[in-house]
Design brief:
By secondary structure, the protein is of the alpha+beta class. The chain is built from 52 helices and 22 strands.
């Protein structure tokens, strides 16, 4: 706006001012000829050119600069002006802002003069204001030649963006109509409008003497930028608003524009017109019909049956209800599409088969006519709006169609329906639609009073429905009836009885809203029309159904499982919520389509999931319907959490009786629910919708949240003390102190919460609290100014990192735990005066505390040696013991006998220090190292560990001890007890303490026992795959992979087994333990032998030969050598059968006997088999077959009898009533071979019959 500068004091005044508002100097010089007011520096009139009178001498005015005060100013100020600034209060709101401004208003001012200009602007602003308030908005301020309006500030509607865009279009329409009048006077009036949706703060601004309520925020600025960029006479909408209002308008995409203050250009759109019902409904239904029908099959069948009943002349009423987005309109669209598809298929079938009767003869199903009437939230005060919408749909009303054309079409339709008597109905339908009536009918309507006109409207609509139903089945579909106007509902109630005699289906779709007229309407229908009523209420989707829908939207396994669960939890079973959350990930660029496959893929990790604006608007509207005091209670409860307690809430809302009334109100509105009464805490409540709780919380301003969080934290801390300190609540106290900015107290309670969680094996909760503590330590360290304080915080950070590392290992996240260990080393290096921390860090480094690949062993040895030297320099016996334990493990993994020396030293130190837990660990470590090749020493270590561990009551030690005890049962072949008494107990304990790594090991062992040793292959395979899922990210996964391959081999799935072995190959090569590579070779040999052709049998010889050499070099137990020889014997026997040359046959038989004989000798020496890839009965059986093949028939037959006896011995250890008793004998192929060979032996008849009977 132009300004005038005072020549005396320099103060700037608006251009229309005549005198300076600061010093009173005349700013304008009146022309003596024409009276025009000229700026003071003009010597001639700018309007007519006449000479102006000279100005009088300027009056000297004191400088406006204030002199330095010679006395205190405060006592002279009114008391209210001395008060300190009040804290910011208010609410956050997602608001749509409309900024309108008249283009070139200054030129218009110059053209018409001030008074006329003010008159024109006032009229324009009045026109604009009417449209704003008519559609539920509010004018925030007038700006001389424009205004700023808000939709969703003080009153929220879920469709505020739609209302705002519609208001903007209407503002342009009424302005253009007025501008047309001005154009006749030679005046150009055009309006620019900008629209944007975003967050604002609804607050009160100003001082104590003057304050006003307003909304402030970036959303307003961007709306103003949209207005400035709009072409005169148009509306420009930001992408924020476009996304929310897109379906309901016709648009012109304008690309992107650069906006001052924003780093990136933004997309902008021009709304052209309101889309007709047909246009947006078609787009809506086309999309919906691409979705699968999930979780709505029962309701689908019921609604189809109701529509099909029309064919038999039976009318009905369907009340279809459910929350926003639950799938009501989707269900209707699916039913309609299904019926249309069925009708099309019938028609095609008749065309293909001329023998079938014609449609007339067969009573062909005729599709009903569907008409839709939509209710809109901003139409609730407009009578008959629902029926107007339906009539417009019936007439096919087009956007911007002249009303006269629509009237003519209505008249033509009426004549077709009623013939010559159309005049009894047509004028009233036309008047209902507010169409311009012909003169012949105008007088008729003018003679009727309001009540008579209403009766005629009701009669005309009822007649219209009746005549349509006489023509054929009719479905009248009313949507969003929770927003119906009372007159429309009264008319619907008047027409309902038509379904008793005509094929009319009243399909009424609405949300359950106690405050809507439809709430009482549904009770009326259930009372008066129970014989016609079908009531369908759509519940939320189940978790499985929601996951199915999510997979359909973005593809299965696109999101990590944890993120998928977060999305499903936030969606709360609502398909619309789920779709909007997926759209939000796409809009943020987190999900993008692969250019080649078209599949969605994740571009980056998801750390948070913001609530889409569409859901914020919806939930804010629900929140805004509450009375202010009740809403305040809900907001305060949201600060406490998704679960809250009456006693804690009273700290924020002290009025007890009023509070209880408000809580009852919130329960009646189905926003919260009672759960249980907690001693000292009062009644416990929970939010029914977590999303609503989030929106209520986010609506509070930051200062309010901080104040509330502090009061809640103090209250919770006090309650913890009075109830005897329940540490499981520590995490809650820590959270509230953190949100209140009290970092030290938050850290204290986070660590208490983590320690308590670890004590009860709640490892996921412990991890969360350790992570929170590390974040707090980072903030405290950044704020620390004292070096000593900073170093103390770093030492504390080291300890927390170590505890979190252990927790990651327990949860099976090995790599993340290893990363924490690396950070520990970096931190220890920054604290050179803390050598103990350096030792601790060295002992937890990859290659020492966690070893994943063979290449890490060498580096690990160096780090462990360094830790040992440092601990001895410090004289720290405990850390020396830990370093020796690490070296013992590393030497054992390298097959270096030095482990005996370091292990013994560590054991002596543990006993000297009285560290019983460490002593058990070392004994178990040494017992495992001795292994089956030195069973005497191995058992001695195990027995010593057992005698100590029973007194420790340590579940982690018990798991390790059970693992060692299980090997005894495996050696005895007592597989059933090994499964039920050892491994299933290990599995239970590992789950109790949350040790995912141990859980994976127990699952793997359960799988191999159930599948490979007891014959339940399907169950065994499922357990192995579950174990693989836990061990997926460590090289130890080679072991479940090998078991899976072995199970597939036993089941005859050779291709699957080969595929799994190919996955295991690179992992096995990196595995630290040589037995991993040995196992890979043995399982490969087993598979190749099972495949049975000559080429694969030779591959089996190669694989088994490699394992044989590995054992010969003492890199693995001689048990592997024994098993390899067994597979070699098997391969040679089969090759002998395939060979055609006698010499070749004899050679293979001799080599088979050599191999089986050596394997038998090793078995005799051991007295047991203790590896998964071989069994004792297999060694005996293969040797028996080799002996017979080489002519030693009797000896070979005796060996087969021994194999059979060994198999039966193990079978006798399985309880007779166990299903394993059958699968052990019948499902395992080897046992079938042994039984067949045994039954074929001479003099085995009696035994054979006994076996058959069994």
């Amino acid at each position: 706006m132009p300004v005038l500068t005072c020549p005396t004091c320099g103060f700037e005044s608006p251009a229309e001012m005549l005198f300076c508002g600061m010093c009173g100097t005349r700013l304008a010089r009146a022309c003596p000829a024409c009276g025009f007011h000229n700026p003071p520096q003009f010597r001639f009139c700018g309007m007519c050119g006449a000479a102006l009178e000279p100005l009088p001498a300027a009056v000297e005015v004191p400088s406006l600069a204030a002199p330095e005060p010679t006395f205190p100013l405060a006592p002279l100020l009114p008391p209210e002006a001395q008060a300190p600034l009040s804290p910011l209060e208010g609410e956050r709101r997602l608001t749509t802002v409309v900024v309108a401004d008249v283009r070139a208003s200054t030129q218009l001012l110059v053209q018409v003069g001030t008074e006329r200009w003010v008159e024109i602007m006032n009229h324009v602003l009045q026109l604009l204001e009417v449209e704003v308030y008519r559609l539920g908005g509010e004018v925030n301020q007038f700006r001389g030649d424009g205004l700023v309006a808000f939709f969703g500030a003080s009153v929220v509607h879920e469709d505020d963006p739609e209302r705002a865009v519609m208001a903007a279009l209407q503002m342009q329409r009424v302005t253009k109509a007025y501008a047309a009048e001005l154009a006749a006077q030679g005046l150009d009036l055009r309006l620019r409008i900008g629209v944007n949706t975003g967050e604002v703060i609804l607050t009160s601004v100003g001082g104590r003497r003057y304050r006003e309520d307003t909304a402030m925020g970036e959303a307003i600025t961007l709306a103003a930028r949209m207005e400035a960029a709009a072409e005169p006479g148009t509306v420009l909408v930001s992408e924020n608003t476009y996304r929310l209002a897109r379906p309901y308008f016709l648009w012109e995409e304008l690309g992107t524009i650069s906006v001052k203050g924003l780093p990136e250009p933004i997309a902008v759109y021009r709304p052209l017109a309101l889309a007709t019902q047909t246009e947006w409904a078609v787009k809506e239904e086309l999309y919906r019909l691409t979705l699968p029908l999930i979780g709505r099959q029962r309701e689908f069948k019921q609604l189809v049956r109701c529509v099909e009943d029309l064919q038999d002349g039976r009318g009905g009423i369907v009340l279809l209800t459910g929350e926003k987005g639950i799938g009501k309109s989707f269900l209707v669209a699916q039913v309609r599409s299904h019926l249309e598809r069925e009708a099309m298929l019938r028609a095609e079938a008749r065309q293909r088969d001329a023998q079938l009767p014609t449609p007339e003869d067969a009573g062909e199903f005729s599709l009903p006519v569907w008409l839709r009437g939509r209710c809109r939230s901003y139409d609730q005060s407009w009578p008959y709006s629902m029926w107007r919408d339906m009539l417009q749909h019936w007439l096919g009303m087009q956007q911007d169609e002249p009303l006269e054309a629509l009237r003519d079409r209505l008249r033509e339709r009426a004549q077709q329906l009623w013939g010559a008597s159309y005049q009894e109905t047509y004028p009233f339908l036309a008047a209902l639609l507010a169409l311009p009536l012909e003169a012949e009918f105008t007088d008729l309507l003018g003679r009727l009073d309001a009540e008579s006109l209403k009766r005629q409207f009701f009669r005309a609509v009822r007649a219209w429905v009746t005549v349509l139903a006489h023509q054929g089945p009719l479905v009248l579909f009313f949507s969003d009836v929770q927003w119906v106007d009372s007159t429309s509902l009264e008319l619907l109630q008047e027409c309902l009885p038509l379904c008793d005699t005509l094929p009319v289906l009243w399909l009424v779709v609405f949300r359950p809203d106690r405050n809507s007229p439809v709430w009482n309407f549904q009770h009326y229908v259930s009372t008066e029309f129970p014989h016609r009523l079908t009531y369908l209420s759509l519940p939320p989707l189940s978790a499985e159904e929601s996951l199915e829908l999510l997979d359909w939207l973005i593809g299965a396994k696109t999101l990590p499982e944890q993120v998928s669960q977060v999305v499903l939890q936030r969606a709360e079973g609502n398909p619309y919520y789920l779709h909007e959350l997926a759209n939000a990930l796409i809009a943020q660029g987190v999900l993008v389509r692969d250019s080649e496959t078209g599949a969605w893929k994740l571009t980056c990790p998801i750390t948070s999931l913001d609530l889409p604006e569409s859901l914020q608007t919806l939930l804010l509207a629900r929140l805004d319907r509450l009375p202010p005091d009740v809403r305040h209670v809900l907001q305060a409860a949201a600060v406490i959490g998704s679960v809250f307690w009456e006693r804690v809430l009273q700290v924020l809302i002290p009025e007890t009786e009023t509070l209880r009334q408000h809580l009852t109100y919130l329960q009646r509105e189905q926003l919260i629910q009672e759960r249980q009464r907690v001693p000292e805490w009062g009644m416990e409540y929970a939010f029914i919708s977590l999303l609503l709780r989030e929106v209520a919380y986010e609506s509070l301003l930051s200062p309010q949240r901080v104040t509330y969080h502090l009061r809640v934290a103090e209250a919770l801390e006090s309650l913890l003390e009075t109830e005897g300190e329940r540490p499981q609540r520590y995490g809650m106290v820590a959270y509230h102190y953190r949100q209140a900015g009290c970092l030290e107290k938050a850290l204290d309670f986070s660590l208490k919460a983590a320690e308590q969680a670890r004590r009860v094996y709640a490892n996921a909760e412990a991890l969360e609290q350790y992570t929170a503590a590390l974040a707090l330590l980072g903030e405290l360290e950044a704020a620390a100014t004292d070096e000593a304080a900073r170093r103390a915080l770093q030492r504390q950070r080291f300890q927390v990192l170590d505890q979190r590392r252990e927790t990651f290992y327990l949860l099976g996240d090995i790599e993340t735990g290893r990363n924490d260990a690396r950070v520990m080393l970096e931190l220890a290096q920054r604290l050179p005066d803390e050598p103990a921390l350096m030792i601790d860090a060295l002992l937890e480094q990859p290659g020492v505390g966690s070893i994943q690949e063979r290449e890490e062993l060498e580096r690990g040895m160096g780090l462990a040696q360094q830790a040992l030297e440092l601990s001895r320099q410090l004289g720290d016996a405990h850390r020396e013991m830990r370093a020796l334990m690490a070296l013992t493990n590393l030497y054992n993994l390298r097959s270096d006998p030095a482990w005996r020396w370091t292990g013994q030293q560590a054991l002596e130190l543990a006993r000297r220090l009285g560290d019983r837990r460490a002593e058990v660990t070392i004994l178990l470590q040494m017992g495992g190292a001795y292994g089956p090749d030195d069973l005497e020493n191995s058992m001695a270590c195990l027995q010593a560990a057992l005698s100590i561990a029973t007194d420790l009551h340590d579940k982690s030690a018990e798991i390790r001890l059970l693992s060692a005890l299980g090997t005894q049962l495996a050696r005895q072949g007592d597989y059933y007890r090994y499964l039920t008494e050892i491994e299933e107990k290990r599995l239970q304990l590992s789950r109790e303490i949350g040790d995912r790594y141990a859980e994976g090991g127990a699952l793997m062992n359960c799988g191999q026992i159930r599948g490979l040793w007891l014959g339940d292959y399907a169950a065994g395979l499922a357990l192995e795959e579950e174990a693989l899922g836990i061990w997926e990210n460590i090289t130890g996964r080679v072991y479940p992979l090998l078991r899976i391959a072995q199970l597939h081999t036993e089941m005859g799935n050779y291709d699957a087994a080969l595929e799994v072995l190919m996955q295991a190959q690179p992992v096995g090569e990196r595995e630290v333990r040589d037995m991993g590579r040995a196992g890979l070779g043995l399982v490969s040999a087993i598979l190749f032998n099972a495949m049975g052709d000559a080429a694969h049998l030779r591959q089996a010889l190669d694989s088994a030969g490699w394992v044989y050499r590995l054992a010969a070099d003492s890199l693995v137990s001689q048990q592997y050598r024994m098993a390899a020889l067994c597979e070699i014997a098997f391969a040679h026997l089969r090759l002998a059968e395939l060979a055609t040359a006698p010499a070749e046959q004899q050679q293979h038989r001799r080599e088979a006997l050599d191999a089986s004989g050596t394997a038998f000798d090793l078995y005799q020496g051991f007295g047991f088999v203790q590896i998964v890839e071989c069994t004792s009965e297999e060694i005996l059986f293969r040797h028996g077959l080799a002996l017979q093949a080489n002519g030693q028939t009797e000896t070979g037959q005796d060996m087969v009898r021994r194999a059979y006896a060994e198999m039966r011995r193990k079978h006798a250890l399985i309880p007779a009533d166990s299903p394993f008793s059958q699968t052990y004998l019948e499902a395992i192929p080897l046992h079938g071979e042994i039984r067949a060979a045994y039954e074929a032996l001479p003099a085995a008849g009696a035994a054979s019959e006994a076996v058959s009977r069994e």
